[in-house]
Amino acid sequence: MKLQANALFITVVISMIIALMASMLILSAYYNKTSILLNFKKERLVSNANSGINLILGDEHVVEYDTPISVDLFQTGNDSVNLKKCVWGVFEIASATAYKHKDSSSQTVLYGYKPDTILKSAMYLSDQNRALFLCGTTKIKGVCYLPEAGVKRAYIEGQGYINSDLIDGTEKRSKTVLPKLDEKLSAYLAKQFLDTNASVNTAEIPDTIHHSFSKPTLVIEIGNSIFTLNQKVLSGNIMIKSKGKLIISAENKLNNIQVYATAIVVEENFKGTLQLFARDSLIIHKNCTLNYPSALGIIKDRFKLFQQFIKIEEGSVVEGICFGFCSVTDLNRVRITVDEKALVYGQLYSDGFAEIKGTVHGHVTCGNFRLRTPSSTYDNHLLNATIDFSKLSTTFVGSALLPSVKEKKVILNLE
Amino acid sequence: MSTAVLKKEKSVKNIIMKNVFAVHSTRYSVLKASTMLEVIAAMVIIMVIFAVATSMFVKITASGFTLEKINANLLLNNKAIDTKLKQDFKEYEIKEGEITIKKHIKPYGSNASLVLLHLEAFDNANKKMADRKELVLIEK
Fold first, then answer.
1. Could you tell me the domains of chain B?
2. Distance from CA of B97 to the nearest CA of A (A)
3. Interface of A with B in 63-102 (CB under 8 A)
């Protein structure tokens, strides 16, 4: 019997087509399985990195500062993470890298500490046997730690106190000394002015730098002169150090970096998130916005005839922490000035003077409220100032530098 | 019409006919027919290839992660997120469709602010489908 075609030839062709289709199906199933497995593996690594961060936040002693360690999370030999923590200005950084064979997943977070009972109040004014005097439209809301002499109305600069209640909140007695700052962290911050370990010189600063927190800190050293930082985009693990005066123009885009200088001037309309620390003066000019988590610090670590100060000018907003302390015995203590229409959202600590003419949504701790007017200088006087603790978020996270409970909280995911 | 034109037309027609014949002769060329044996052999080859391919495909899909396993993993992820958000550290065993989820909470070392969250998913035959361990921070 004979057929009218080459059946074997056609069959071979058909079988090849079927084989090709079948192999495609097998390949797609294989890739599907591989991608799912990879996804599960990645998910597990992310979860382990997250567990590593939680371990750093939950256990104070699991890892020492700047000393990376490797931990087997569940003692199964399959969930290893490298942990590291370090100080980043007034905040801290935790980093966890989970790995399995060649794959790894990293997480880096900036964290802070929850404020303690004292910092959950509107103000803490040390008891220097002098009452607190309120004038004009001054408004204080929240628990207040005040001297035994209490709080009184006063009439200065032609303005008497106009509100009915002196304080909208509970009054408590303060002590003669202020709550102490964390010694280790204050010493660390003071030491940063002296350390010189520059990686980049002034002349070499590129216009844009994003430096990962997984790498060693990039330190940009600026000499003793007056230097203007202009039109730079800097973010991440970067520290700028200057032994002179540093001017930061509004054309910069600075994010999460630290700046240490003898004097710092932030020019009008600047916007960014950064931590600024100065030895002599720190001026935030008009209409600047320093977003949370920012920090302004003045650290007096040597005897100087003039008064070291922070000045936040009209229309500026600082979200985070403002502090000033004197680590040497000197009667000329630091001053923090918040001008009219300026806002500090967070915590303000001055072991010397606080001159509040604007608004603080949060807490103020100071040795003395000093008010300077063209005609006179008044001690423990507040004129047309607002200190309102109720306007501060209940989830606000502060710094270990200020009195805090040992409960850590993530502020933001860096990487 | 002149004779020259007629001759030219004729020669063109001849060329066309030759080409047509050439085409037709290729299309209808005589092929050798296959024997019954050849046809059976071809069919067997097709059957064998098809059987092998099918068995391989079934094996790969069956041995890999099924949709149920993916669902189980997603469920455990959701439960872990719930536990962290709601700070719910009670152990439980619940059934969601065909999947049984067991949640275990254990202290992590001597640290009071950390717990070990262990979630497991089982199918109806009590076969483990997914497993997830995580350290969770207790917010005071």
1. 3-62 (no CATH), 67-137 (3.30.1300)
2. 22
3. 73-74, 79
pTM (two decimals): 0.81
Ordered by start, the domain boundaries in chain A are 2-113, 115-404
CB contact (8 A) between residue A25 and residue B31: no
Residue A21, number of CB atoms within 10 A of its CB: 12
Q: Is A229 in contact with A221 (CB distance < 8 Å)?
A: no
Residues A294-310 have pLDDT tens digits of 999 999 877 777 788 99
* Chain A residues near residue B114 by CB distance under 8 angstroms: 54-55, 58-59
**Interface contact B57-A47, CB threshold 8 A:** no
Identify the band that residue A199 occupies on the pLDDT scale cut at 50, 70 and 90. Answer: low
Kindly give the interhelix angle for A7-58 and B67-86, rounded to the nearest 10 degrees.
20
Which residues are CB-neighbours of A15 under 8 A, at least 6 positions away?
B42, B45, B46, B49
What are the residues whose beta carbons fall under 8 Å from the beta carbon of A349, sequence distance 6 or more?
A178, A181, A321, A322, A323, A324, A325, A364, A365, A366, A402
Q: What is the pLDDT of residue B3?
A: 64
Residue of A nearest to B35 (CA): A2
**pLDDT tens by residue, A42-97:** 999 999 999 999 999 988 888 999 899 999 988 888 888 999 999 999 999 999 99
